[in-house]
Amino acid sequence: MRFWEKIRNGTLPITRSRGRFWDMHQYYCLFNATRVPEFPIDRIYRYFKTEARMQWADKSWNIIVCKDGQVLLQGDVGFFSCFLIFIKQSFRVNLVRFEGYGNDLARKLNLYMDTVVQIALQLAFLRTHGSFAPIYETASTRKFYHGRTETVRGCTHEMVAFGQAIIDGQSKEEQQQLFFAAYEAHNKLMDDCMDGRGIDRHLYGLRKTLENFRIRGSLNIETPEIFTDEAWKVSGGDGNYLLSTSFSGYMADDEVGFYGFVTAMRPDGYGTFYRIGRNSVQLVITDWCQSKSNLSAYGENIKWSLTKLGSLFTYRAKL
After folding, report:
1. pLDDT, greater one: 208 or 22
2. Which of 53, 112, 115, 243 has the CA that lies 20 to 30 A from 16?
3. Cα–Cα distance between 253 and 260 in angstroms, integer?
């Protein structure tokens, strides 16, 4: 089919943006011959790397229809008030699918599966690198007018105690008790952030306000020590989270659905987007090449961690 001729001479509705007509070049990628690989990880790799050479990456939004009817939405997240990151050859991505259990079991045991996954991610990093990591999880503040997100800093004292108990091989009863302490601590943090009691957006606002005052020359205040202290960056400040994570929704009947991903904030860290199904968890993990990170080990340890956690809360159910 002569798609360009149909687009140019067809009856597409007139679309405006801020009073200006859209250029027809914005429809360029609507018709595409992208091949559909057999395996999901190959599919992600082609969509965002090798086959991405056919897309105009400077466009805010690309819609790609593949030969089998699958649709790829490729967007510049900077357009949506988030971060813009260029994907280069140093970037790696992998798909992890855990099928041991999912939301059905969690609901039966009165557990929130997202918190279980968050604890598993931290445990996986600990098992991979032998240390704990500052972790970022997105919390929604949509209950507020113009609310967007807040940061859940999930590396709590309770999480450290639980992780250490796993590494030290403490008794199952002790591990179970510490797991639920970490679980409750994380849920409390999430509730606080969703209710507007987080700290990151508040501190960011204060910092940007000071910068604006300096630019205008109306006020000259030294940068507060909290932003210059070494602990600020070690704990994840200024985009230094070793684990950048986000829960991107549920999978009805464990269907494959869409694949979303986030790049690692640091060269030695990981990005992790995940979806939760009834009996599975699907994760897309990323890192940067030639760094301290180990993507394959991290992925395997995520599955190990979820299995380990499952043994703890199912053990509790038997008591």
Report:
1. 208
2. 53
3. 18
In the chain, what are the domain boundaries? Answer: 3-80, 91-198+242-318
Residue with tokens 């004292």: 157
131-163: per-residue pLDDT in tens? 999 999 999 999 998 889 999 999 999 999 999
Q: What was the pLDDT predicted at 290?
A: 82
Question: Based on C-alpha coordinates, what's the Rg of the chain?
Answer: 22
Tell me the pLDDT tens digit for each residue of 156-168: 999 999 999 999 9
To which CATH superfamily is domain 91-198+242-318 assigned? Chloramphenicol acetyltransferase-like domain (3.30.559.10)
Amino acid of residue 60 = S
For residue 29, give the DSSP letter.
G
Read off φ and ψ for residue 287, nearest 5 degrees: -155, -175
Scan for tokens 């970037």, then name that residue: 91
Q: Which tokens hold the place of 27?
A: 């429809």
Residue type, 232: W
What is the helix (H) or strand (E) element at residue 164, kind and residue range?
Answer: helix 157-168
